Write the structure tokens for this entry.
Amino acid sequence: MTDTTRGVEVAATLDCSGLLCPLPVYKAALELGKLETGQVLELICTDPGSLEDIPALARQRGDKLIAVEERGDAQAFWLEKGTTT
Amino acid sequence: MTTTQDHLATDRSVRRYERIDDLLPDVDNPTPLVRAHTTNALELYLKLEWLNPFGSIKDRTAAYLLAGMDETGKLDQHELVEPSSGNTAIALAALAALRDTKLTVTIPDGVPEEKKILLRMLGAEVWATPDDLCPVDHPKDGAIALARSLAASEGGNKYAMPNQYENPDNVKAHYETTGPEIWRQTEGRVRVFLAGFGTCGTITGVGRFLKEQDPEIRVVAIEPQRGHRLPGLKSFAEASEPGILDRSVVDEVIRVDDEPAYAETKRIWREEGLMVGPSTGAIVHAANQLSDEGIAAGVSPDSGLKYTSYFAELLGDEGLPG
């Protein structure tokens, strides 16, 4: 699936709407663990804490946060899996 | 399930039981106190909590937590979720299995695989969690944070969380069973009580009961080092202090590092034939630091059978042919 606005191929989408932190962090880490290096995870969250936690997760794991988009009460993140995780 | 009217009902006097949870301890069915060697004047008795039906002191806690939730209707149509370093979860999983209730356990990553396997054998779903799961500004208790978020997510309608760290029924279990058992088993002569800092249900419940019998009884808590490898114990230098801890019943805190705790554990196995877990080694090591005299009771929370992978590292090539 290609995200046309960003021109990136999304390998997996994870909807964490309604889940409170750190549940989205946990689930995102699990999902990223299943991907190959360079593949992109699209992550949807509604907990405002995710705006801090998801970028920190990417830094901690060595993944690349390609983009963040706020959509009303929700946030979308695109994470590219790094080589070290 | 027996259906005839003349079935053999539970009779503790001959140790015959209708269900496994009929073995849960109380003052008339206590876990044993067994003498352990010390290097000082203390006459130390270990309370062998691993002889409980599900293998640890947490059998008491789990039974009281579920009973309390039943009384308040919190369990109605809910699944269970609980953060645990393993023992509470194992007891909860066994009791949940008896009542056909699903249990999800959030467990610290470092807990030995043996415990995670036991939980899965009992039908629980196991979510292994790093302590630093929350990358931003959260305490180092990832398993607790994750269980809380599971309980609060989806409108809070799916899961009920016993929450051993905050639930006063955890303290009540030890105030009503462990404490009175020790008092009776020592004929009221216990002078010192030792237990680890963990959820703090044991130290608070037993400490409170014993001090009500005799305020001169000394209550000693054992706290591990930062980044320790003593499952079940908590260092409050890195973990949040549980809400149920009552520091007014604690007279002294002794810090015990991993190395002497494991060395003492090995000695206990080899010299006393007691197959204890590493937290018992920490408690005996702490007992040896005291200048008190007379009878001491120390908790031996669980056996070492769930820590064989840790012991394999401890032993290296020891015990193998040259």
Summary: The first helix of chain A runs from residue 23 to 34. The domain at 2-80 of chain A is CATH 3.30.110.40 (Translation Initiation Factor IF3). Chain A has a mean pLDDT of 90. The two ends of chain A are 23 Å apart (CA to CA).
